[in-house]
Amino acid sequence: MWGGSLYSGIPKASEGKPARGAIGTTIWAPAWVAAWAAAWAAAWATIGATGCSDPAECTSAPSIAFDSSVSSPSVTGGTTNIQLQTSLAAGDEVELEVDGADGSQLTTLTGMAAADGSVGFMGVSVPAPGVTLHATGHGLCGIGRASIAVSATGSIVGSACTLALSPAPEANAYYAATGIAGVLSSLSDPDPETPGYQTTVQVTTLPGWTAELFETAQATTAVDGTASGLPDDVSLGMVTAAADGIAAKPVSVADGQIGFYAICHGPSGNDLASAPTMVLADTTPPGCALTAPPPGATLTPGFDTDGVPKNATWLLDVTGHAGDDDVAGEPVTLMTGVPGGPLTAVPVADADANGTTTTMVTLIPGSAPSMYEIDLQMRDHAGNTCAIMQPYDVEPKGCDIQVVSPTTTVTQDADPIQDGVQVDIELKVSKACVSRMVSATCDHGSPSSFPDSTGIVHLTETVCQTEPCHAQDACTFHVTRANGVTSQVPATIVFSDVE
C-alpha cells in the first residue's frame, strides 16, 4: 500500500558554488551538503531490516550526537575539545568539518570511534565569533551526521536545526519492528475529512534564520500548493524563523513512507542540516465485510449449525473479512444483539493471514419474526478501523434457501446457441417450499422457476448480450412459504471469458 524513496534529490554542488534546488530555488550548498545527501540516501536504504551488526541487519543509519555534558569546552588560545557519542563500531571513521561564521570551510579533522562509540577531537580551532561543526560518521549501516554551532567562548549553542512534526508521529509497535519510528494515521489526523494526513513541519533554529524544508518523493503537497507531483526529493520552500526560533509550514501527506528534513541558513552564510524524520503515513482504513451470514439474507433454521433440529437455540457461523494486506494478526471486535438495543461483545479470533476472522454466535430466535444485528470492526497495522453494522430479519418459520452454484467465477456460456451469455444457477429450498415459486431479482433479469421434489431449483440468467463478457450480476433469491413468510438470500454471479 505504500513505498519509500531515497533522499536522492538534495541539491548537490561543489564547495563555494551556488546550486539549484529541486524546485528552482537557489541555495548556497557547500561540499558537506552534497555529502549529506549521499549519506542519508544510504541511511534510508537500510531501513526495513533488523539490526546493526552487519549491513544485512541494519535498521537505521549510525547515530551521532555532540555530547555537551562531556565537551563544555573552555577556549585556550582559540582552541577547544569536542566529544561525540555515536553508535559506530570501534575503529569506524568520523570526519569533523569546521566552518567559519561566514560559511567558509576552515578545516576537516578525522577521528576513530572507541569501543563505546565515543570520538574525541582535541584542539579544535574556534575563531571569533564562532564556528559550525559538521560531523560525518561512516559505518557498516551507512553514514550518520550531526551539526552544531559553537561560540568563541567555547559554549555549545546547539544544533540550531532540528525538525519535528505536529502532531507528533504515533508510536506503533508493528512498524517499529520494521525500522519505522512513527506513523501518521487517522487516529491523530487533526483534519480527517481532508484527503491525506494534515501535519505541520516545525523546524527549531535561531531567530531570523531561514529553514528550507524538504520531503522525499511522495505525493505530498504543501497547503499553499507548492511541490505537487515532483519526481524527486523536493523543496517545500523557505520559512523564516520567528522570534522564538520556530519555522513552521503545514503540509498534507499522502499515504506512503515519507521523510522530511531541513537545511537551516544563518545570516552569515553558515548552513546546518537537521536529521531526517522518517515516518509512514497511512490514513486509509481497510475494507471489511461480513461474509457469513450473507448481508441481506433472512436468517432461517438452515443457518443453525448445531445439528439439533427445531431447538430453541441457533448457533450461527459468523465470518468477517478484509481484503487488505495489512490486517493480518490485528484484533477484531464483534458485537451482537437486537437493533437499537444493547449489544454484547462476542469473543472472536484476530484476523488471519488472509484477513479473515471467524466465530460462532448463539441466537435465540423465539417463535415470531424478529431482527438481529451483527456489528464487525477490524483494523490495519496503522490503527485505522473499518466497521460494519448489519441487521438481519429472523424468520423461525421461513423456508431455507441456499445457493448451490455457482460459487466461483463462471467462464463458459451455459447456452451457446442462445443470443447473449447465459449462466446456470442452482438453488436448494427446504421441504416446506418444494411447491412454491422461487424467483430472482438480478441486475440483468428476473428469472424464476419451481423446485423439483428434492427442493432443487434451476434458473438461467443472461449476464451479457455479447461476447467476450465480463460481468458481475448482483442477485437476491426469494421464496414465500404457504404461511406467507418470505425468506431470501443474496449472491453475486461473476462471469468472465476475457483473457
- C-alpha Rg (nearest Å): 33 Å
Give the rounded overall mean pLDDT: 82
Sheet of most strands: 6 strands, mixed
> Would you count the extended β strands for me?
35
Structural features, described:
The structure is a single chain. The chain has 499 residues and is mostly beta strands. It is 5% helix and 45% strand. The protein has 3 helices and 35 strands. The chain has helices at 31-46, 68-71, 173-176, and strands at residues 18-20, 26-28, 64-66, 79-86, 93-100, 105-112, 118-125, 130-139, 142-151, 156-158, 162-166, 182-185, 197-204, 210-215, 221-222, 234-240, 246-253, 256-265, 271-273, 277-282, 288-292, 298-299, 314-322, 333-337, 343-345, 356-363, 370-379, 385-394, 401-405, 421-429, 438-442, 448-449, 456-464, 470-480, 486-496. The strands form 9 sheets. Strands 12, 14, 16, 18, 19 and 20 form a 6-stranded mixed sheet that branches. Strands 6-5-8-9-10 form a 5-stranded antiparallel sheet, covered by helices on one side. It has a 5-stranded mixed sheet with strand order 22-28-27-24-25, with no helix packed on it. The longest helix is centred in the N-terminal third of the chain and has 16 residues, at 31-46. Mean pLDDT is 82; it is low at 1-30, 42-56 and 218-231.
What are the defining features of this structure?
mainly beta; six-stranded mixed β-sheet; five-stranded antiparallel β-sheet; 35 strands; 45% strand; disordered N terminus
Tell me the layout of helices and strands.
Blueprint: E1 18-20, E2 26-28, H1 31-46, E3 64-66, H2 68-71, E4 79-86, E5 93-100, E6 105-112, E7 118-125, E8 130-139, E9 142-151, E10 156-158, E11 162-166, H3 173-176, E12 182-185, E13 197-204, E14 210-215, E15 221-222, E16 234-240, E17 246-253, E18 256-265, E19 271-273, E20 277-282, E21 288-292, E22 298-299, E23 314-322, E24 333-337, E25 343-345, E26 356-363, E27 370-379, E28 385-394, E29 401-405, E30 421-429, E31 438-442, E32 448-449, E33 456-464, E34 470-480, E35 486-496
Parallel strand pairs: 12-20, 22-28
Antiparallel strand pairs: 1-2, 3-4, 4-7, 5-6, 5-8, 8-9, 9-10, 11-13, 13-17, 14-16, 14-18, 15-17, 18-19, 18-20, 21-23, 23-26, 24-25, 24-27, 27-28, 29-30, 30-33, 31-32, 31-34, 34-35
